[in-house]
What does this fold into?
Amino acid sequence: MKQPLVSVIVPAYNAGRHIQETIASVLLQSYRNIELIIVDDGSRDNTALIVKKYLDYDNRVHYIYQENEGQAAARKRGFEHSQGDLISFLDSDDLFALNKIEIQVRFMLDNPNCGVSYSDILHFWDNTPHILLRKKLTYYSGYIFDKLIRENVIQVMTALIRRDILIKYGLPGKEFRRSDDWYLWLNLSYHKVKFCFLDRILAFQRRHEAGSLSDQKTYFKETAERNIAIYKHFKALLNTEECKKYNIDNLLNFWQFRVVLGSLIMEDRIHAKKALQLFKIKGIFDGIKKCSLFILLCLVPVHVLGNMIYKLREFTRRRTFIPVTDTTITLPTVSSLVLS
It folds into this structure.
């Protein structure tokens, strides 16, 4: 049976601290017909020096440099230079299980009607990699636009996607910074691409303490604004009955409130007030939230209020993770390919 080429695309920005382990988790895959395309998104650290060591070590590794445009633009640039029949994306500090691609390729060959296969994932904090964590999520297979429009449950590094589908429906670029993966899944599922969930742990996502991208104070607000744009995009495509079925207006309102919180985290009182004005009262709890936040905005210094919201967000986010008690599940061993 033909062994299709798989292109693994890794966007990298100031990734020198962890990118060797990420590269190793790709090159050590049990499936060998792989090309690894690393797109350096204007790094200012030693990312380029590290990657270039692997160019000499393995001819499957390719390196592209671009000025900083964001992760979405880097993924798209990598795809444009790829040759694979199947496409996988991996962030520069995360890891594949060493049999990930083999399992998914076999599944895709056996299921030609599946456009995207994806899997379960575990998480770990950077300072405690021996403690693996799971999020409580429900995964779906089939034509799942109705599920994904409410919540993105697909971590991008778990997916394997057919190239012809990405060519047909396109890959988002920098205009979808922060939420490009969610837009991609929505766009594909809207066009009736079939998604298939594999009940296997095939990837590991590294979580960082404050200072990483997901912890930057700009991230919360920018993600909310981008998600509002995504909902407006699909609202224009859906008819009135579909918009009502999917509760699009309520979902837009939910993210509008997140813009308010994000503006406060950034200590921007002016934009917080403007965003709060746009937040609609659709029920008693919305009224309580709007009134309470308005009072707090008037009485509490914005830096104090923003810091309180930020800390509460971090506390809440950490509580979504549950430690994995199965001691047989461990991170992939990649130290043999961490080059000196």
